[in-house]
Known about the structure:
By secondary structure, the protein is of the alpha/beta class. It folds into 2 domains: 2-121 and 284-303, Rossmann fold (3-Layer(aba) Sandwich); 123-275, Dihydrodipicolinate Reductase, domain 2. It has 9 helices and 16 strands. The longest helix has 19 residues, at 306-324. It is globular, with a radius of gyration of 22 Å.
Amino acid sequence: MKIAVVGLGYWGPNLVRNFLSIDGVEGVVACDTLPRRLENIRKKFPTVETTSSFDDIVWRDDIEGVVVSTPVSTHYPLGMRVLKAGKHLLLEKPMASTTTEAEELLDLAYSKMLTLMVDHTFVYTSAVQKMKELITKGDIGDVLYFDSVRVNLGLFQHDTNVIWDLAPHDISIMDYLIDGKPVAVSCVGVNHFSEYEDVAYVTVHFAEKLIAQFHVNWLSPVKVRKILLGGTKLMVVYDDMEASEKIKVYDRGVDVKGEDAVYKKLVQYRTGDMYSPNIDTGEALARMATEFVDCINTGKPSISDGQAGVNVVKVLEAANISIKAGGRRVDLSYLSKSNSRSLISIPTFSN
């Protein structure tokens, strides 16, 4: 097969490089409207075909899969054209600008039996795969909380806020690791230098006694990429800035003993060993690209399929609504095609 990559800005060349290295991919066609980007691709990858016409990509019979790595506002119109042409689709994250758009893309892919994936690269990292393994095996126990920090100084975006820029990474990790589905979102933040928020705190509420918190920030003096996952048996710290030992597993927590005369329940702290499991350092993007090709060939589901993309967009959209409403809680059930109300009229709910 041949794979087309549409959009050759920051991320596009990385996608071209990875698809070129996959067995079974006969060639890559690169598409962008800017001549300098096409020239840059030709210099780096002389065997790659280039074009400035998206129509050429859509209607070529020898292209089976299309990767769209363009601004999020273009994902829906470009993605719909790709799917209507009968081609498999890989969208850069986030999947779309609204939940309704994301669901329409998913419905069309289902109806045409086409692969629809979203480039949630982090779920393909060995560190996140190890965390999933610990949860699946029951080593962690019941998950109590998911806490992430993704902060740095800049880069300020001119068309979106810090939530849509940074939070999709960790929200996609949460969606992959935790089987339970969130029911509501609340969010607070501040815009210091433009109309878009540059500091924000997103809280995701679950029906069970589970909560997730996301701190995103463009104004931090240091770069932090850290996730804390707490369970009833073990606790895990994932620090992506670590060169080695990205995952640390702690036998620490709280044990509740029987009742005594003073307290109804006696809470004791457990402090045990810490270990850092060995993880593969292979490139996550290569795994994601390989899975896209495998899904096209076999029809098997992907760990970053269209439904995962919808789940992430729903949390992002709810966070946007909540932050404009002063942090009030937004019920996720109202963000779907079946509730085709304007964002202003979607009810919010206090705690």
